[in-house]
């Protein structure tokens, strides 16, 4: 078991390298340096494009204060009766939870709990209309969001509510699957349930007709939060 993880990671990386092998041109072209911020913006742009291709809704790339306003505006449009907020990974979700804690909305806060409390939480999430979750990583090549299940962010949070808003820090948008698996690390992969979410849930098992929202949320909204230095880039 100890040698399985690096072998799987190496196989994934080798396959991706073969698929995206560089094209060599006969004439040399000048190479311009790319700043980390520019590379980050490029990955976010690719992620947004791929997410929209699989019927996800890209809310934009924004500052922490802007994403709070955007989530509140979305709830005003959707009018959910209950909203669940998971524990943060790299962002500060407290302002969002505070803004959503208002009359007309039942706010469900997820946190560490015992078995009885977890069962009660699952029952509440089964009746919840919207979940706000922070992804551990995003994969630009496929528009995928990577969410690690923890006591403060249970797997049911991204499975039971019919609509998900998933946020991810811009520094955690990675180029491909191999990068994401490497960033997660062996300990996380072996000890936790990891969900790779690519667009809303769908199936074609029923008379070969695509149906959304069967095994997970019907609507998936994603936003990239630019919490570092410099201006928020426009895509």
Keywords, separated by commas or semicolons:
6-stranded parallel β-sheet, 12 strands, 4-stranded mixed β-sheet, globular, 235 residues, single chain, alpha/beta, 6 helices, Rossmann fold
Describe the overall structure.
With 235 residues, the chain is an alpha/beta fold. The protein has one domain (35-225): NagB/RpiA/CoA transferase-like (Rossmann fold), CATH 3.40.50. The protein is 35% helix and 22% strand. It has six helices and twelve strands. It has helices at 4-19, 36-53, 64-78, 94-100, 115-126, 177-191, and strands spanning 57-62, 82-85, 106-109, 130-134, 137-139, 144-148, 163-169, 173-174, 194-197, 202-203, 211-212, 219-225. The strands form three sheets. The protein has a six-stranded parallel beta sheet, sandwiched between helices. Strands 8-5-6-9 form a four-stranded mixed beta sheet, with helices on both faces. Strands 10-11 form a two-stranded antiparallel sheet. Strand 5 and strand 6 (144-148) form a beta hairpin. Helix 3 (64-78) packs parallel to helix 4 (94-100). It is globular and about 50 Å long. The model has no long low-confidence stretch (mean pLDDT 85).
């Amino acid at each position: 078991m100890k040698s399985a993880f690096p072998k799987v990671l190496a196989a994934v990386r080798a396959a991706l390298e073969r698929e995206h092998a560089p094209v060599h041109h006969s004439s040399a072209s000048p190479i311009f340096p790319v700043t980390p911020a520019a590379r980050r913006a490029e990955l976010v742009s690719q992620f947004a494009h791929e997410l929209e291709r699989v019927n996800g809704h890209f809310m934009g790339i924004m500052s922490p204060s802007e994403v709070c306003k955007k989530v509140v505006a979305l709830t005003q449009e959707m009018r959910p009766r209950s909203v669940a907020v998971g524990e943060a990974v790299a962002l500060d979700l407290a302002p969002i939870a505070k803004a959503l804690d208002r009359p007309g909305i039942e706010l469900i806060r997820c946190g560490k709990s015992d078995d009885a409390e977890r069962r009660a939480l699952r029952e509440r999430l089964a009746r919840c209309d919207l979940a706000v979750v922070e992804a551990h990583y995003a994969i630009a090549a496929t528009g995928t969001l990577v969410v690690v299940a923890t006591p403060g962010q249970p797997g049911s949070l991204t499975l039971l509510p019919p609509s998900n808003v998933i946020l991810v820090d811009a520094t955690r948008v990675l180029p491909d699957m191999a990068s994401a698996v490497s960033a997660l690390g062996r300990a996380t992969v072996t000890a936790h349930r990891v969900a790779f979410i690519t667009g809303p849930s769908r199936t074609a098992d029923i008379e070969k007709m695509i149906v959304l929202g069967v095994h997970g949320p019907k609507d998936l909204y994603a936003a990239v939060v630019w919490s570092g230095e410099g201006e928020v880039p426009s895509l």
